[in-house]
Amino acid sequence: MFLLGHIGITVAIVYLAVMYFSSRKRKGGLGVPSIQDIDFRFVIIAAVMPDIIDKIIGLFLLKDEFSNGRLFTHSMVTIGIVTICLLILAQIRLKNRIKFLYYVSPLWIHLLLDRMWEEPKTLFWPMFGTSFPRLDVEFTDYFTLLFSNPYILAGEILGISIIIILFLRHRLFINHHFMAFLKDGELKTST
User: Fold this and answer.
1) Residue 38 and residue 18 in contact, taking contact as beta carbons nearer than 8 Å
2) 81, 61, 63, 83: which is closest to 125 by C-alpha?
3) What does pTM read for this prediction?
4) Mean pLDDT of the chain
5) 150-167 pLDDT, tens per residue?
6) Among the residues of the chain, which ranges form H helices?
7) Nearest to 172 by CA among 11, 23, 3
């Protein structure tokens, strides 16, 4: 999956989870954050962070070595270590530690959307050795893949559709609403 699919689908999953659990808060008294408590800028960044890191390393910095856009941050071991570090940070910094789940879950959702189980050597790196499969991928190959792979194309269409729906629902087309979102990451309810 590509940028819009990762962002849109991940934000939708986190958004719906927050809505569901915050509605149960009113019924059961659980200490769960509401939509206004979540900084969706972090959700967006976490949704694409594995691709940002791995594509910079594998397709640009160490292209001759890897030529692969799925490396270290597409591994459960790496994401697990990041999860543990964020959990420790959440214990120290966050009043509501449940909020940490909303910020770390996009990393795991990324692995699911990329169907990493199809690449077990990368998914379980370094358990099967420290090397990665060499794919001899060019950055321009991703554009060809977008239109030739129905899964990726459908994911991108779904992702942009979700982004548009949330953009309209939270009136981000209004300049001060959009600037407020950029400032605090909060999806305010429209008034």
Assistant:
1) yes
2) 81
3) 0.86
4) 86
5) 998 999 999 999 999 999
6) 3-28, 40-56, 76-93, 99-113, 120-123, 141-148, 150-169, 175-184
7) 11
pLDDT of residue 25 exceeding 70: no
- How far is it, in rounded angstroms, from Cα 26 to Cα 103? 22
Please name which of 105, 141, 146, 99 lies closest in space to residue 3, comparing C-alpha atoms: 146
DSSP annotation string for 147-175: HH-HHHHHHHHHHHHHHHHHHHHTTTTSH
175 exposure class (CB count in 10 Å sphere: 0-12, 13-18, 19+): exposed
C-beta atoms surrounding 68 within 10 Å: 22
Burial letters 77-94, b for 16+ CB under 10 A, else e: ebbeebbeebeeebeeee
Percent of the chain with pLDDT over 70: 90
> 80 with 100: CB under 8 angstroms?
no
More confident residue, 161 or 133: 161
State the DSSP code for 190. P
- Other beta carbons within 10 angstroms of residue 13's beta carbon come to 19
Judge whether 106 and 43 are in contact, CB under 8 Å: yes
Instruction: Tokens for 20, please give them.
Output: 């569901």
What distance lies between CA 127 and its chain's CA centroid? Answer: 24
Domain boundaries defined on the chain: 3-184
- CA torsion angle for 149, 155, 156, 162 (degrees, to 10)? 170
